[in-house]
């Protein structure tokens, strides 16, 4: 689960990591009394926000409500802005990148530090490889003093104790929250010391059972600032659905990763482009089918939906019920192409026929039809 900047910063604050003071502005509370200088930051989950114009500095010389309106009108990589974090502007002398994540091939946490933080970190990661330091951590020992001393020397930081406190707190958050990423980019060196400018925290969805209350609280906060018209990447921790967004116009749903990937390949083979892909998990039911269809259809670029089902444990009568419910109650205009076979196939097919929804035995034909329809629409 990806957290918004303001959510990440709340956690940072709790662990004693210095953050700017500030508050959240919702679309409904425009016209609040504000004192400059402020940094106004659109709260979105996608990266590259600054570059997309999602961050504005207000020095008091212009009308702040105009800036706020502009930010609320923005769409950053399809994501609508529904909340703005207003922060006291700080003077930045230097920017540093720090993150803790997993080195998946070694199954250990790794601390990544770079002297060239800021909005171009991806570019500098390619250009200045020697300026990025990867420090592998022993999960039983955590971050050791000598490792921190080593980095401080390399990146030339004066505030050693402050820096150490921040890194140790980041690691504590990483562990205690079961995070897969805790990132500060940038950490600013200011005339008054170190301060976090931006936060990115990603929690491991599989740890839901350990943090049920926290996940529910974070999800509730997120709901408040997301609206039904924006494309929101759904959370997958409360069911078995894996959702992957792409940038085409065909929605794809499968009941297994293998079939899904095969269908993805076939779609591109026939000249189509996938908008998003939902893999429902091997054992599933009509509710999950319905939810997947809703997820896929929530992206307004979807022009046709392809559902690829090979029932093993998964029952086709259940799948048919989910699809029928979706077409009757939620979807009026996106055409759906279903390839159905496997367990309880005959019952499922009969239900589909009774509801007048076409079904296909051949994957090739279903794919071709879905691609053709997406191109027409
Ligand atoms: P991102 O584009 O989503 O990564 O947004 P960030 O919060 O990292 O901000 C992008 C850039 O805006 C930072 O690297 C800073 O250079 C600048 N910035 C953000 N907040 C402040 C601030 O309080 N003071 C100053 N001087 N610059 C800021
Ligand atoms: Mn940033």
List keywords for this structure.
six-stranded mixed beta sheet, 18 strands, 35% helix, binds guanosine-5'-diphosphate, 11 helices
What features would you describe in this structure?
The protein has 377 residues and is of the alpha+beta class. Helices cover 35% and strands 26% of the residues. It is built from eleven helices and 18 strands. It has helices at residues 5-14, 64-72, 121-127, 145-155, 160-176, 212-225, 257-269, 286-297, 316-330, 345-354, 363-376; strands at residues 22-26, 38-42, 55-58, 75-76, 79-80, 83-88, 94-103, 108-114, 132-136, 179-190, 193-196, 199-203, 242-245, 250-254, 274-279, 304-311, 336-342, 359-360. The strands form four sheets. Strands 7, 8, 9, 10, 11 and 12 form a six-stranded antiparallel beta sheet that branches. It is globular, with a radius of gyration of 24 Å.
